[in-house]
Amino acid sequence: MRTLFTIIFSAVALFASAQEYTISCTVSDSFNDKPAFLVNKVTGDTIARTNIAGGTFEFAGKLDTPSVFDVIVNKAKGVAATVIVGKNVKVKADLTVRPAKVLDKGGYNEKFAEIRTRAREASDANVANEIYFKAIRKNRKNILGAYVLNTIARQFTDYASLDAIMRDVKHAGEFPLLKKTHSGLYHREQTAPGMPFVDFDGLALDGTPAKLSDYAGKGKYLVVDFWASWCGPCKREMPKVIEANKKYAGENLIVLGVCIGDLEDRFRAAVKELGLDYQQLFVPYTNDPKTASTLYNVETIPHLMIIAPDGTILERGIQASELDSKIAGYIK
């Protein structure tokens, strides 16, 4: 009987914790008969889909925990609104204006709109930041605090500061942008100039397994060029890298191209087409957190790096036009 009571009580509690929400939306009549989607901003999952009629549509459901949704109309060629859904929420979203106006009778959405408006009207960046941080501190125990933090995630420039505030803000670890920024700052600091190189796996030009450690820390300076076959700026800078390889490669220097975010057949074709006569390491695209672009927080390419003979990172993010003088300075 005790076990049966526990099961029944748990089921009732679970049902009671599921909170209902309704999102009523208004759009231009030009979107009639077009689809509208409800997407979970945290997971990226499409929760629901409906067709627009008479310039309106609605989504309704139940949530066990507060979340943030994107209401997307007609995908790429449409409009969108972000909606914070808490407990027993009835939201009205007006997508006929930009940015969309989201109303919930003083709820999370209206509070966020007020915070954003005050920050944008602030006298300077420092005042705006204080408005955001005050809102985060005040709402650190609910979804609004996490969403405000997610909105300003790119403003953080050091890992420790973001890590400390994420630990204090409930739901912060659920947002993909926050997690990516948090991880990126960590890896950027771990591979900053003065730090030892971090190893990663790839494939040599002949298709055999290879690692960065096959070239780094071997008693020679190492120039690492992160690139991809689809990257126009990479191709424009290649002649400078080729020139540096011809001029300095030998006893004291190795030049290594590291191809990331690419397809293997395109990588091989590009090596031949561009006449890349130096060592190459192809890193297959993967969600593995130990892949090259993640470990070195390479967000844009080309990205050039110089590693000392003992494996210490000396330079990161240098321009190809600087490469000749940088190498000459180290070798001398």
Commentary on this structure:
Helix 5 packs antiparallel against helix 6 and helix 7 packs parallel to helix 10. A hairpin with a 5-residue loop joins strand 2 and strand 3. It is built from 10 helices and 15 strands. It is α+β, with helices and mostly antiparallel strands and 332 residues long.
Low-pLDDT sequence parts? 4-16
What characterizes the major β-sheet? Answer: 7 strands, mixed
**Name given to the CATH homologous superfamily of the largest domain:** Glutaredoxin
Give the % helix.
25-40%
Strand content: 25-35%
How many beta-strand elements?
Answer: 15
* Helical/strand content category: alpha+beta
Number of individual domains: 3
- Give me the strand/helix succession: HEEEEEEEEHHHHHEEEHEHEHEEH
Q: What is the CATH architecture term of the largest domain?
A: 3-Layer(aba) Sandwich
Output the number of helix runs: 10
Shape: elongated
Please compute the radius of gyration using only Cα atoms.
26 Å
- Beginning-to-end CA distance, first to last residue: 84 Å
Report the mean per-residue pLDDT as an integer: 89
- CATH-defined topology of the largest domain: Glutaredoxin
- Largest beta sheet: what is the strand line-up? 10-9-13-12-11-14-15
The level 1 CATH classification of the largest domain is Alpha Beta
